[in-house]
Amino acid sequence: MIHDASLLTKDLLLEGDVAIVGTGAGGGTAAEILSHAGLRVILIEEGALRSARDFHMLEREAYPDLYQESAARKTKDKGITILQGRTVGGSTTVNWTSSFRTPPETLEYWRTKFGLSGYSPDALAPWFERMEQRLNIHPWPLPPNENNAALQRGAAKLGIATHVIPRNVKGCWNLGYCGMGCPTNAKQSMLITTIPSALRSGAVLVTRARAERISFAGSRASEVVARALRPDGITPSPYAVTVRAAHIVLAGGAIGTPALLLRSEVPDPYARIGKRTFLHPVAVSTALFGREIRAFSGAPQSIYSDHFLHTQSIDGPIGYKLEVPPIHPVLMSTAYTGFGVEHARVMAQAPHAQAIIALMRDGFHESSPGGSVGLRGDGTPVLDYPITPYVWDGLRRSLDTMAQIQFSAGARSVMPLHENARAYRSFDEARAAIAALPMEILRMRVMSAHVMGGSAMGTDEKASVVDAGGRFHHLENVFVFDGSVFPTSVGANPQLSIYGITARNASRLAEQIGGNRLTH
Amino acid sequence: MTISRRRLLAGGIAAGAALAVAGMIYEWSPDSTSADPFFRFTVLDDEDRAIVAAIAPVLLAGALPSRDAIEQVVRGTDVAIVGLPLSVRAEIRQLFGVLRFPPSRMLAAGIWHPWHSATEAEIGQFLQRWRYSGIVQLRSAYDALHQLLMAAWYGNGESWSAIGYSGPPRVHE
Question: How far apart are CA B64 and CA B71, in angstroms?
Answer without folding.
Answer: 10
